[in-house]
Specification:
Elements (H helix, E strand, L loop, with lengths): L6 H5 L15 E2 L11 H8 L14 H11 L6 E4 L1 H14 L3 E5 L5 H8 L3 E5 L14 H10 L9 E7 L11 H9 L5 E5 L20 E6 L12 E5 L1 H14 L6 H12 L1 H24 L2 E4 L5 E6 L4 H10 L2 E2 L1 E2 L9 E4 L3 H16 L2
Parallel strand pairs: 1-11, 3-4, 3-5, 5-6, 6-7
Antiparallel strand pairs: 2-8, 7-8, 9-10, 10-13, 12-13
């Protein structure tokens, strides 16, 4: 029998998304989805495009690009629109990282090493501090070689061509301050620094203000989390014109029409409804603080979060066991069976009602331990 599969597809370990179970009704606190519906204006915007679905969408997404440029006070030429931030992150590998190695934290968004392997890019995992924070001072030329020598990676060291940081970091929720981001950029001016701001709207400070100052900075964001549009798949990047042009070259080598008409119209409407955005964002931040306080009372260690999730461990109950027991009770949270974080759960911030049920279920489980 002819083997049609490449060595790459046989060996690659794909990204594993959070469970999307349909065998019963669950409270879903495992995929960092927004618990609130999109702005009512989104439906109105999408409806206006229904009669034009026979036509290709604008490959430049100029309607949305214009709205993003005004919202963040940058030129349209500094904006790239993609099919979710994941697509933009994928484009970044062949655009910026393939000629060397990319460095990112050893505990971060688990799609990063998947992208690196898919695009056959070598990567260096930078250790976090003991408290899971990122040490920006460790991202230096002298340190890259030292960490590579200490790692189990036996491949020859190549120059670091790029740095990829999730801020706030996932799955910890810890955010770097803007001054730390700037220090990271200053210490690596010969490298592309990509800041993945999927969760920035829940408490962090965006690095977009630094784009005009540093040509090696690319900031990537998404509409999935804070704007409740995970189902539309819309993301964007802001950076120097040269970086945006590079992303467009990669995009147009795959598919010029990455966003459909409905996504462009819906995302634009969501961005323009500032009042609704502020209201739902503040609800999530408030719910996060309430859940944090409730879990601390139950002897949980809760990592300080600036995201729409919290990262927690318990002194008496193993995370894997608690994950299974909550699933049996109809509550889904995220468990990563990986070194260093295998006793932590990531819990998405849901509605007040969802979080009340979560806490009650946890109390019942603790009583039976």
């Amino acid at each position: 029998m002819i083997d049609y599969l490449t060595k790459l597809v046989k060996e690659i370990e794909p990204y594993v998304p959070g469970e999307q179970r349909a065998d019963r009704k669950y409270i879903k606190l495992n995929t960092n989805e927004n618990p609130f519906p999109p702005s009512p204006r989104v439906k109105e915007g999408i409806y206006t495009e229904l009669d034009r679905l026979r036509l290709y969408p604008d490959p430049e997404c100029n309607l949305l690009k214009s709205a993003v440029s005004k919202e963040y006070n940058v030129g349209m030429e500094n904006v790239f629109i993609g099919n979710g931030s994941d697509e933009i992150l994928a484009f970044a590998f062949p655009a910026f990282f393939n000629d060397g190695m990319v460095a990112f934290p050893n505990i971060t968004y688990s799609f990063y090493p998947v992208f690196a392997n898919l695009f056959q890019t070598k990567f260096l995992e930078m250790p976090l501090n003991d408290d899971f924070s990122i040490d920006v001072n460790s991202y230096s030329d002298e340190n890259y070689r030292r960490i590579h020598r200490k790692s189990e990676n036996k491949e020859e060291f190549q120059r670091i061509s790029g740095i990829l940081i999730s801020n706030p970091n996932a799955p910890t929720g810890i955010a770097l301050k803007l001054q730390d981001i700037e220090k990271l950029i200053q210490n690596n001016q010969d490298k592309l620094v990509l800041i993945d701001e999927a969760y920035i709207d829940f408490g962090g400070e965006t690095a977009v203000s630094l784009v005009k100052k540093y040509k090696n900075l690319l900031v990537v964001m998404t509409f999935s989390k804070s704007r409740s549009l995970a189902g539309l798949r819309v993301g964007f990047a802001i950076g120097d014109v040269e970086l945006i042009d590079a992303l467009n070259k990669i995009k147009n080598s795959f598919n010029s029409y990455t966003l459909d008409r409905l996504a462009i119209a819906g995302a634009t409407a969501a961005l323009l409804d500032k009042e609704y955005f502020a209201k739902t964002r503040h609800k999530i931040i408030s719910n996060r603080e309430k859940l944090t306080n409730e879990l601390i009372k139950l002897d949980f260690n809760v990592i300080p979060s600036q995201a729409n999730f919290i990262f927690v461990s318990h002194e008496r109950i193993k995370a894997g066991d608690l994950f299974q027991k909550l699933r049996e009770e109809g509550v889904l949270v995220r468990y990563f069976d990986k070194p260093l974080i295998d006793n932590y759960l990531r819990i998405t911030i849901g509605t007040v009602e969802d979080l009340h049920t979560l806490v009650q279920k946890i109390k019942e489980i603790i009583l039976n331990v």
